[in-house]
Amino acid sequence: MSAAFSSVRAIRRPGSFAGEKHSPPVASSKFASDFLGCAGRLPFGALSVSIRPRSARRRGLSSVVAVSDVVKEKKLKRSSSSSDLLITKEEGLELYEDMVLGRTFEDMCAQMYYRGKMFGFVHLYNGQEAVSTGFIKLLKQEDCVVSTYRDHVHALSKGVPARAVMSELFGKTTGCCRGQGGSMHMFSKEHNLLGGFAFIGEGIPIATGAAFTSKYRREVLKESDCDHVTVAFFGDGTCNNGQFYECLNMAALWKLPIVFVVENNLWAIGMSHLRATSDPQIWKKGPAFGMPGVHVDGMDVLKVREVAKEAIGRARRGEGPTLVECETYRFRGHSLADPDELRDPAEKARYAARDPIVALKKYILENNLASEAELKAIEKKIDEIMEDSVDFADASPLPPRSQLLENVFADPKGFGIGPDGRYRCEDPKFTEGTAHV
Amino acid sequence: MAAAIFQGFGASTALSLSKSFDSKRVKLPFGRSLSERRASFVVVRSDGRVVSDSCRARKLVTHAVATKADSAAATSASKPGHELLLFEALQEGLEEEMDRDPHVCVMGEDVGHYGGSYKVTKGLAKKFGDLRVLDTPIAENSFTGMGIGAAMTGLRPIVEGMNMGFLLLAYNQISNNCGMLHYTSGGQFKIPIVIRGPGGVGRQLGAEHSQRLESYFQSIPGIQMVACSTPYNAKGLMKAAIRSDNPVILFEHVLLYNLKERIPDEEYVLSLEEAEMVRPGEHVTILTYSRMRYHVMQAAKTLVNKGYDPEVIDIRSLKPFDLHTIGNSVKKTHRVLIVEECMRTGGIGASLTAAINENFHDYLDAPIVCLSSQDVPTPYAGTLEEWTVVQPAQIVTAVEQLCQ
């Protein structure tokens, strides 16, 4: 069948799922249990769209289902052949390596921050790796990624070297943004990472613009092979912001090749998503604008990857945008300055038990995709990369004074004409960074 | 194409305002054409090369003053040019740039099928298609951000604010992304975007449609701001803004769209950073921009009759200021009067006063006088509106006091 998302309709059932493995969520309202991914049963009667093979089925339903018809189909196909896994060995190792890189890097960031090597606001991604890896590892180099302030791992997944990101965090001139951006502003032209934005929501129009360029290239500049896709990542808090809605409208209106990925980790600093949102089911907002809205278990990289394949495929084929809500969780506070006192320890424990890296490791080992030794080798490799990146960042120089004025304008004539009639950028002091502008 | 250096066209190209106005739409206080105005344009290379490409070329710009004799010679040497209204000049510039580079596109409300609320994009959608001249929904912050994202990924968009005031909604994107993104990305992404639209106090449009956003945007690092005031500089600045790799905000004025002028047939691009010498003089330097240029020129007529010789400069570049042209003038006249439409508090005039004091304090014989609009939300009633804005009579009085 033509792989397409149908508009998701949640079928609410009273109470929680039968066979639900996890304990009920913190908020005990019906709303909350609906929200936490219990999208009900699909009308066709397929019980579980869990993509875990036999072992998972034995344990019963996962409480969170991906509601993609495609995944369901894959599952139906798979039941006929149990050797039909979702990933190959190479893919599995690639996913594993990427998630371990993200986790290790963030842990190293925390260490470095407390040692005074980086300052300001640092927002760590621990726990959400499945979303970044699940989506970005399906992208080409030419595809664009737009992120928020929680962007270290998106940068790493997109291919920005760990050295460059660590240097940027240390504020060194070898950082990916020459030390001028910092934790919240990771950019890479080479890898088409369009930021890194401090204000929530302000990256979404940028992503929409990148998708617009892709469509423009195809239709106006007649580059018929241009099928670049843009993936925009943002959180649950952003989904109450005007720019989100404005961009959903424009993207659907013009069928832009974009995927809107909501990393719903249930908390916007200390504001629970349920306390901030009239209808917490974010995926529902997609169909309201004329695009599919999909909810997926963001703690399971394989599920995310299946949904991502379809969403990215849709965009590449010119069928338009998709809204994907990934239910995920951040294991640490909002930032390194956040005492994280409001979240229930039981909730944290519940999600810690669903650690995406542990889950993937289990899948790989149980399905004999790779051996323990191979996974250990990957972990060792990551450790070495990490050490190297810290050493590199430590050894890198701080930006010199001469860098101060260099990138304010793409065309430095923008600083204007000084009293002596020369352009200010011609002043020798300009390159020293001490010119009067 | 030979580099024809235009030193001005003399009387034949003086703005002939009386005949060409739609008098219902615009009623400027002066009726006669400004034939006695010394035609003096900033010199520009018209061989299609952007002046600002080479700072060496700038040296050609200095002698902007044309006497009548020179201009007559120049007129006979050059083609006659063609007459058009300011909004048509903007359109011409825009169309030429869109023809020249397929990456140039327009987005904004009603720019496509409607042709633009002030007709600047009229006919362009038919010619270039709905994607290149994009009608957007009413979502300023988002479509401005979309323009910025498109600029980052290789296009050269022109974002139109239907009224400049609407761009207040886009302030997040203009400040954070448009201005700062080139810097925070370490120079990796350039934002060659043009943000343009009509602003200023119109004819009883009410407070919210009569705003002067140049004062709000001027602090944003990383952007350039220019204000056009004649068909000639409107076209030239539009083209320059589009070709610039920097984000440029082009301020047009609601009341100036129907000004008529004869402009060259040859292609020309003006410099974004330079001011324009409107009328050379000896006694006092009057710095102005946009609509106030015309109030100043009307006051200048009165002043000339009274025996004064004001030097009038249209600063054109609101950010950065052209301190060379301004400085040379201050060094000559030693007296400065700034006439602007911005509010008194924190306006362009306030910044300009500070910049001149800082750089040319020694050359001033008197404190700088700055005439701005009152710090009042522009009232609807015509009489009140008139009193919030600087009128020619006030300019005359100010010059007389300054020159005592």
UniProtKB/TrEMBL annotation, chain A:
Q: Which reaction does it catalyse?
A: N(6)-[(R)-lipoyl]-L-lysyl-[protein] + pyruvate + H(+) = N(6)-[(R)-S(8)-acetyldihydrolipoyl]-L-lysyl-[protein] + CO2
User: Pfam families of this UniProt entry?
Assistant: E1_dh
* Keywords in alphabetical order: Oxidoreductase, Pyruvate, Thiamine pyrophosphate
Which Gene3D superfamilies did the record assign? 3.40.50.970
Q: Which GO terms describe its molecular function?
A: pyruvate dehydrogenase (acetyl-transferring) activity
The reply on keyword rRNA-binding is no
List the cofactors. Answer: thiamine diphosphate
What is this enzyme's EC? 1.2.4.1
Q: Which InterPro entries match?
A: DH_E1, PDH_E1_Alpha_Subunit, Pyrv_DH_E1_asu_subgrp-y, THDP-binding
Q: Name one GO biological process term.
A: pyruvate decarboxylation to acetyl-CoA
Dehydrogenase E1 component domain: residues covered:
98-399
NCBIfam families (UniProt xref): PDH_E1_alph_y (TIGR03182)
Q: How does it assemble?
A: Tetramer of 2 alpha and 2 beta subunits.
Biological function: The pyruvate dehydrogenase complex catalyzes the overall conversion of pyruvate to acetyl-CoA and CO(2). It contains multiple copies of three enzymatic components: pyruvate dehydrogenase (E1), dihydrolipoamide acetyltransferase (E2) and lipoamide dehydrogenase (E3).
Record's protein name: Pyruvate dehydrogenase E1 component subunit alpha
> Which organism's genome codes for this protein?
Rhodamnia argentea
From TrEMBL, chain B:
Q: What is its main location?
A: plastid
GO cellular component terms, A-Z? chloroplast
Identify the CDD domains for this entry.
TPP_PYR_E1-PDHc-beta_like (cd07036)
* Cell cycle in keyword set: no
Write the record's keywords in alphabetical order, separated by commas: Chloroplast, Metal-binding, Oxidoreductase, Plastid, Potassium, Pyruvate, Thiamine pyrophosphate, Transit peptide
Q: Which cofactor does it need?
A: thiamine diphosphate
InterPro entries assigned: THDP-binding, Transketo_C/PFOR_II, Transketolase-like_Pyr-bd, Transketolase_C
* Domain called Transketolase-like pyrimidine-binding: residue spans: 84-259
Catalysed reaction(s) here are: N(6)-[(R)-lipoyl]-L-lysyl-[protein] + pyruvate + H(+) = N(6)-[(R)-S(8)-acetyldihydrolipoyl]-L-lysyl-[protein] + CO2
Gene Ontology terms, MF aspect: metal ion binding; pyruvate dehydrogenase (acetyl-transferring) activity
- Where, per UniProt, does this protein localize? Plastid, Chloroplast
- By its UniProt entry, which Pfam families does this protein fall under? Transket_pyr (PF02779), Transketolase_C (PF02780)
Q: Which domain of life is it from?
A: Eukaryota
Report the EC code(s) recorded for this entry: 1.2.4.1
What is the protein's quaternary organization? Tetramer of 2 alpha and 2 beta subunits.
Cited function: The pyruvate dehydrogenase complex catalyzes the overall conversion of pyruvate to acetyl-CoA and CO(2). It contains multiple copies of three enzymatic components: pyruvate dehydrogenase (E1), dihydrolipoamide acetyltransferase (E2) and lipoamide dehydrogenase (E3).
Q: Which PANTHER family match?
A: PYRUVATE DEHYDROGENASE E1 COMPONENT BETA SUBUNIT (PTHR43257), PYRUVATE DEHYDROGENASE E1 COMPONENT SUBUNIT BETA (PTHR43257:SF2)
- Protein name as catalogued: pyruvate dehydrogenase (acetyl-transferring)
Its source organism is Rhodamnia argentea
